Amino acid sequence: MPPYTTVIGLEAHVQLLTASKLFCGCATKFGAPPNTQTCPICIGMPGVLPVMNRKAFDLGLKAAVALNCKIAAFTKWDRKNYYYPDLPKGYQISQYDLPFSSEGFLEISDPKGRFETKRVGIIRVHLEEDAGKSMHDEQAGTADSKVDLNRAGVPLLEIVSKPDMRSPLEARAYLTELKLLLTYLGVSDCNMQEGSLRVDANINLHVPAPQEKGGKIATPIVEVKNMNSFRSVERALAHEAERQFEEFQRTGQRLGQVPKQTRGWDDTKDATYAQRHKEESSDYRYFPEPDLVPVAVTEAEVESVRRALRELPAQMRSRLAKTYGITAYDAEVIVNQAQPFVDFYVDLAARCGDGKLAANWVLQDVLKVLNERGIAIDKYPVSTERLAALLARVKSGDVDTGRGREVLQLMLDQGQSADEAIAQLGIAKVDAGELRKLCEELVAANPKLVADVKGGKLQAAGAFIGQAKRKNPNVDPNRVKEVCLELIQALP
Amino acid sequence: MSIVDLTAFELRERLRSGEISSRAATETYLERIRRHDKTIHAFLRVDEQHALRQADEIDARKKRGEKIGPLAGLPVAVKDILCTKGQPTTCGSRILENFVPPYDATVVTKLKMADAVLLGKTNLDEFAMGGSTENSAYGVTRNPWDVTRIPGGSSGGSAAAVAASMAPLAIGTDTGGSIRQPAALCGVTGLKPTYGRVSRFGLVAFASSLDQIGPFGRTARDVALLLEVIAGHDERDSTSVPKPVPEYSRTIGQPLSGLKLGVVKEHFAAGLDADVESAVREALRVYESLGAKLVDISMPVSKYAVATYYIIAPCEASSNLARYDGVHYGHRTDEKAMLERLKKDAAGGGEVDSPLVRLYRDSRAEGFGPEVKRRIMLGTYALSAGYYDAYYLKALKVRRLIRQDFDRAFSQCDLIAGPVTTSAAFKLGEKVDDPLAMYLVDLYTVSANLAGLAGISIPCGLSTGGLPIGLQLQARPFDEERLLRAAHMFQQATHWHTLRPKLAA
Ligand SMILES: [Zn+2]
């Protein structure tokens, strides 16, 4: 345990899954050629006016309700004014003092028990439009700068957490849970590579100091940016905590003694670096957007959003655990793979009638292939129907788990059904008499092993399995071991 | 009687009956513009070919018996702050000198749909900021009644065009009085509709919560005709209100019985020119003779209206005008020369701008005129951290109180009557070096914008110097119908709206 407490708050920007932008009809598809998804409104030409995309507002509402937020009865839009080439109007339409929702929470837990289940507070969730993208070298001056405004006006949900996380691991768990929730709700695809989920972190330390009021010293808060995966968030925060502690020991600087610093994360160098202070960053001259009318949301509307909410990940986990008798850990891993994977599992469990068996196979064998091949569950080559047929043979004892894996491999590689693969591998159930005869031969042929077992080294019986398999690959290894032990016990 | 002596309503009757062709009407007005606009300079651009083509097309369609719109063949001039597709829209500013919008303002679309003939774009104070049309980057407009005087502003070009009979109808915009004040000073009728009555889509924004587009004409009936075409909800403007549009020109002839006119005592305080006061008082007597009852009312908060307006309007303007940065469109400073200047500055030591910041600074410094810069600075200051509460927030509170003043007043009366301006038109250049004096020209008009009401200015007399004086009527939100009927009543009883300036040939 480090000699301090790490305090982390996260600010996430999530792109909403709408077909069109927040205030105009332009498409929001990722990857289109630069400036092909623009119109006079999102490029800020004179005289044009924004019109709110109701779909975006409704998606935001859904997310906020799922995040247990209070929904404001009345919300308005504000202008955030600053100059930048990727901001063609010279202001961003956002929400300032009356966000449409606030004071929610998201529960996070760790199935491995590395931290206790806790609620991370949500300060506010608001809607705003994205800026464009500039590619330029401002310092060089002579080089041409380029601006792509496809992204300008795309709807974003800004979700600001309280500084409730106490480790980089918790921060990662929060993001994982947030992403899961939003993808389950269809609010966002949360694709960090495509920029539909962006995360900034605020971090500082509480260093124990019994002589101080409150018993601790808070170090200056640093904002960390440029983290482009959950892994890099975790690593960046771990590094930043160490750096802050080292700096605190060196300088003794406390919260409030230096201006808030912004640091970028460099994934290749494994370090944060100080970023240049943005000019005029402190004064955005917010004021109410006069071109849009305020939005009123009634109690009844919130209630209908709440009722229409589908099962959320947390509820789904406990339902899976209860219905299929699987462990909380297994339920967590299944649910965390997102909806299509859950559907796959549920279908498989129903078909084979054994939730535990289905969980074992899905979590070990199916997941392994998905990871190796880098594919999603919808691209998994074996259907639940065929996989269930294999599990039925395993469950009945026709095929043991080991041979079952061989069967599945064949099904994956050659597209066979379970029966075909079993036949091709020549797997046939060995009847009890045959098995007993085989074991008697083995016991007779291995006096040394028999003596070991007799002498108390029970694990020596394992050696019989290999020999049995060589004679007949279809024998069930567990049965071989059982029968051999029985025979040896019976010897004088 | 010449075509240009007809009111728009009369001309429409003759166009409909076929007595006059659209071509003839358009040619007459174009000829009139050719003759007089060198002196008046009401127009920034006149597209003769385009106007004649439009007129011919309407004539042809009429001949074929096809359906034609309510303004069929009527020439209309449009303030150069409404976007016109494929045609320059400058806002009277250098920064948009070469800007050609790829879209029409909704009002322009509606005019086209109504088969109006668009004569051209009229002059204005840069971005509608001013009360004299002297702030145009393209030269001043002169008052047709006395060419040494201002026509008022910011819609000075539109008012002067109608006053000089260079257009029977014109479109203006009113943010603090920019339709009513030039209408009064040019002796024409001008109406500022209720905020939300007319779509602002395609109107280049000055102060979004105050801007409204409205009509100019010779008579209340002309103005009614134009208003019923341009009014209505527009899904492209969320602040336009989805209320049905009455047929103003049809109901305008119905007199109002038992009309209660509120007279604001604060309107007749010090600072009001004697000529204006006597003309307005005489107008009130006319109403009394028509059966109206005068009710004394007080609007104590109105004395803060100008101060409130000059916080809110510049704040919104500072943000609305941020987009003119030389990056995406509009004027951009000569980059090579700019980089040279930067290099020189850097050689002198000390901190210099980044090229991007210098691009913004130089483009805007060159593109905007002094009044626009002044208001951008005022607004930027008032919205800044530490000043926001004292200025912008306070102004919003006063704005609410002004609205309450009106609500109280309208519980006692149907309409409020009073002066439009403190005096008749002043001399060109008289107030250019005194911005504060210039701001006071909005004294009687800004309240209607702050409260979102409708107001109209109608001619009600001449000064001793022979200059027009206007009477202002103000109505509850969306009560334009009553406003127009009351104005029409007055015009049926008086001749002031029929007077024309004598223009040198
Ligand atoms: Zn667009």
Give a nutshell description of this structure.
The complex is a heterodimer of chains A (492) and B (505). Chain A has 492 residues and is of the alpha+beta class. Chain A is built from 15 helices and 17 strands.
Tell me what the structure shows.
Chain A is of the alpha+beta class and 492 residues long. Chain A has 3 domains: 5-301, no CATH class; 310-424, no CATH class; 432-490, Arc Repressor Mutant, subunit A (Orthogonal Bundle), CATH 1.10.10. Chain A contains 15 helices and 17 strands. In chain A, helix 12 packs across helix 14 (462-471). Chain B is α/β, with parallel strands linked by helices and 505 residues long. Chain B has helices at 8-17, 22-40, 48-63, 106-113, 156-163, 180-186, 220-230, 248-251, 274-289, 305-320, 335-347, 355-367, 370-383, 389-410, 435-439, 446-451, 480-493, and strands at residues 43-46, 75-79, 117-122, 169-174, 189-192, 212-217, 260-264, 293-297, 415-419, 454-462, 468-475. Chain B has a domain at 3-255 and 484-498: Amidase signature (AS) enzymes (Alpha-Beta Complex), CATH 3.90.1300. Classes of the chains: A alpha+beta (492), B alpha/beta (505). The A-B interface holds A 40, 43-52, 79, 81, 83, 85, 88-91, 138-139, 141-142, 145, 147, 279, 282-283, 285-287, 290-293 and B 82-83, 89, 91, 96, 99, 101-103, 105, 200-205, 207-209, 235-239, 315-316, 318-319, 321-325, 327-329, 339, 342, 354-357, 360, 380, 383-385, 388, 392. Bound molecules: zinc ion. Zinc ion (ZN) binds at residues 21, 24, 26, 38-39, 41-42, 153 of chain A.
